[in-house]
Design a protein that fits this description.
Elements (H helix, E strand, L loop, with lengths): L9 H22 L3 H4 L2 H8 L3 H8 L9 H15 L10 H8 L3 H9 L6 H11 L10 H22 L3 H9 L2 H8 L4 H18 L6
Helix pairs in contact: 1-9, 3-4, 3-9, 6-7
Length: 212
């Protein structure tokens, strides 16, 4: 690879990944989603570029993956060609990749075959063509998985935000949000308990009587 690539140190990337794993695990547990679903190795592989048979090790905090940037680029480029297909389900040809990335067919072929070391510009152009995020082709495996998990986390947070509190739903369904809001402004639990007593008395007074 040429100079200019910024790659996080393995220790820092592993620490960030461990933190993301912990947050995603906690969210999944709160939402009742299985760990196998949120940490599906094939989905994370497609999202990160990390080979499926490597994904589990970095998630568990074990060193794994390809440390060599050139070899990592070839792995990720191959994954893109296998998983990002044309609308008709076929792979993009070398010529189509070359045209889309603004390079010659010879350049594209040399990059695919590992005969040429890619520049930063090559990586950016290929990533734009395949519509993947910056760094997809070059990021350390732990850093790449961390980026993929952050997207998983965002989706889980959106799901979690949609799970409104049962009391909140009850207040909305019965149109008593104003009462609840006013009660929350009272200074002590003693005052709020008094409101509860009044509401209980009111409910008793309007409860329909059993018909004979």
């Amino acid at each position: 690879m040429t100079d200019g690539f910024s790659v996080p140190g393995p220790t820092a990337a592993a620490g960030l990944l461990a933190a993301s794993v912990a947050r995603v695990t906690e969210l999944a547990d709160k939402l009742g989603q299985s760990h196998g679903e949120v940490f599906d190795v094939h989905r994370l592989s497609d999202a990160s570029g990390v080979p499926a048979d490597v994904v589990a090790a970095p998630l568990a905090g074990r060193p794994a993956g390809e440390p060599d940037l050139q070899a990592r680029f070839l792995q990720r480029f191959d994954l893109l060609r296998r998983t990002r297909l044309k609308p008709n389900g076929r792979r993009y040809t070398q010529q189509e990749i070359a045209d889309g990335a603004g390079m010659s067919r010879q350049q594209a072929g040399a990059l695919i075959n590992g005969d040429r070391r890619p520049t930063m510009e090559h990586c950016d152009a290929i990533q734009r063509f395949f519509q993947v995020h910056a760094g997809f082709l070059t990021a350390d495996d732990a850093d790449a998985l961390n980026t993929a998990l952050q997207r998983t986390e965002q989706g889980l947070l959106q799901d979690f935000a949609g799970e409104s509190d049962p009391l909140e739903r009850l207040l909305q369904d019965h149109g008593v949000r104003g009462i609840a809001w006013r009660a929350a402004q009272l200074p002590t639990d003693k005052h709020r308990d008094k409101v509860t007593e009044w509401l209980d008395l009111l409910l008793e007074s309007v409860k329909p009587t059993d018909q004979p």
